[in-house]
Amino acid sequence: MYSYSDFDAAFVAERNRQFRAQVERRLDGSLTEDEFKPLRLMNGLYLQLHAYMLRVAIPYGTISARQMRQLAHIAETWDKGYGHFTTRQNIQYNWPRLKDVPEMLDALAEVQMHAIQTSGNTIRNVTADHFAGAAADEVEDPRPYAELIRQWSTDHPEFQFLPRKFKVAVSGSEHDRAVIAFHDIGLRIVQKDGQTGFEVVVGGGLGRTPMIGKVINSFVPKEDLLAYIEAIVSVYNLLGRRDNKYKARIKITVHEHGIDDIRERVEARYAQIRPTFEGADQQMLGAIKSQFALPKFKQAATDAYDSRYENDVLFRSWADTNLTAHRDADHSIVTISLKKHGATPGDASADQMRAMAELAELYGYDELRISHEQNVILPHVHKSDLPAVYDALREAELATANIGLVSDIIACPGMDYCALATARSIPIAQEIANRFDELKMEHDIGHLKIKISGCINACGHHHVGHIGILGLDRGGVETYQITLGGDGTEGAALGTRTGPGFSAEEIVPAIERLVEAYMDHREGPDETFLAAYRRLGMEPFKAALYEDARAEAA
Amino acid sequence: MSVIVTDSGFGADDWAAPVVPMEEAGPGTTAVAVPSDAEPLALADFVSAQPDLMMIRINFPSHADGRGFTLARQLRLAGYEGRLRAEGHVIADQYAMARRSGFDEVEISDELAQRQPEDQWLFRADWKAHDYQSRLRG
To answer: Which residue, among A35, A148, A245, would best test binding to B if mutated, counting the most B CBs under 10 Å from its CB?
Structure first.
């Protein structure tokens, strides 16, 4: 894992000192509310529906046990005893008081964390594959590059007042777990003629105008990466629209000018910028890489795992659902579900955070990850330790066996917290999870991603849900539209709308009819919902949603 | 009137010659005013065609509009070595960004100078410290 250099530590301390002064200068009138707003946002502080919200960066989702414990401590000291893990691998505190925020930032700095550029029109927290370094299918660990980009983008003097927010994701695998096609810049590590480089995708995004990113360059050598992405952001800073915030993201810039025009501008800018990087960044990269060296993996028999798997149905169900193949055959990647049926997706209490920290210390080489799917991951656990891990998770109410299943829902905060929301999303997620839990069908249904957004800004990623749900306000009434066939992985696709929306009372039965239609039409348990939809098209699902409803009403 | 901010604090404007809009510049023009929506390639061509140019003043219509930072950087990368001034709604918190992007100085209104007095600007005058960019480019 990356540990701060003296430079990093001094930078964060100085930044906190500056923010403390900014809060004071807001209060004494030196800064107008208008001037203060982007400053607090670039330090992670939002104003939500009921209170401020502090969004803490967890760069590329990687965190140590000590850091997780500190997050628990912050939740208990300055918030209501819990935190919310987000789709950008961050954690949000929903109830801080403005006067406490500088202290919270200092507490974060104690464990080498910060809230810098988690908001505002800046380059946001860089995300990466949550299985990085552990996945069996990886070309190279993307996190050293993500860390290099974090340092480059932090307080970049040109890019603190961009037309709009700017998100970068990095993946090191063929299989895309970082949703790179839906980022302002998506980077995929590729090898060409024995050289490491990046396929660079630009202009993807969700929100009210969802777009799949386009390849701007199929191979940028790793030595040229910072200059190339600086060229992209520099072109965007001048060309991106500032007249309409809904048309200000780079996806619109790319759409309006065309990818060829953008590529030409970027190449011209790149030619100017490249000579300013003389190799110091590559030396830093080398030093960063050595900090991401894999732990020395434990060697031991796996009998304890095998016999528990054989004899305990519940353990087996959890193992089948929540474990992923590790690069070392005797280890597993453990995904801890923060999606207990009926709970708020992504929330964890301080006690749960501490329980997960302890497991990481005892069995997980002191490392945890946050996934964009709002779960927590122990990336390296020896199989012989899995029974103990499972037992401890059960005790902390963290052993829900539902990863990738119908109740593993991504949901935005919705009208329960957010000032922009037009409908509730958390309660809908809870009702869906509870309903399928009652039916005891989840494991038969298999892999199915439901994603819920409470407004068209799409923080719940509904466009890339196999089933997407979008909550809108229609004449003062919550209405939920359904999309089908979205995919945020390497098969990138946007969901297609089924037709008219459903009321809050109708939406859960509607989802149930959709799933029943899938169960009726699938060729077998191996054909997932998404595969069945791709084979069958919209018709049988539309019929189940609308005709069956009419038949029932008649 | 206005105040000129440099690393040593507030000062009066010592530039006496007229500052003319880009489109009115001609032979002998020594200073031009550049809007924030200037096209960077055209700007670079313009600058190289004006041998007498000694000062470029880039406007910031709002503190939330960061185009001026990239324009300054582009001018420096294109080889412009004359005086470069940021003018308009630039706040003290942006002073280090302006300097790091290639500006020599910032021109602010008396009103802003009163609301954000000199000490708030000097607080950010150590712009060479804590700078990731210079670290990565060495």
So the answer is: A35
